[in-house]
C-alpha cells in the first residue's frame, strides 16, 4: 500500500494521540472563568473519551467530553463551581483520562495505570489592575 491510503489507514505508534494546550484565565477567578483548552488529535483516526480536570480548590462537575476527527483541533471549556482564589496566582491543572472510547492503546503507550496524569500545567490569571483598581 502506498500514498495517501497508507497514511490514512496506517497505525501510528510511539506518540501520544492528543496535543493539549491550556490557556491562562482571562478574568479573575472570583468571576468563575472556565478552564480553556485547545486539544488536537495528532493521529489519523477519530478519538473520543472523557477527561477529569483537577485544580486544587476547584470543583469541576462531571468530565470534559472530547471527540475529535483525525488531525482536528478544537477549543474546549470546562467551568468549576465556586473556585478558590490562589494568593500566588498559581493554579496547577492536571488532566487524567476518565474513559476512552476509541483506540485505548494510543492513550497508554506503556502499562495501563489507574488514572495516569496525561497533562499537567500551571495556569495563571493574566490580568492586571491599574492604579484605579480597574482590570485591564
Distance between the termini: 56 Å
CATH topology: Immunoglobulin-like
Rounded radius of gyration (Å): 18 Å
Enumerate the strands of the largest sheet in spatial order, edge to edge or round the barrel. 5-3-8-9
CATH level-four homologous superfamily name = Immunoglobulins
Helix percent reads: under 10%
Shape: elongated
How many domains is the backbone divided into? 1
Largest sheet: 4 strands, antiparallel
Low-confidence regions = 102-115
Structural class label: mainly beta
- Please name the CATH architecture: Sandwich
Q: Keywords for this structure?
A:
136 residues; mainly beta; Immunoglobulin-like; four-stranded antiparallel sheet; three-stranded antiparallel sheet; 8% helix; 38% strand
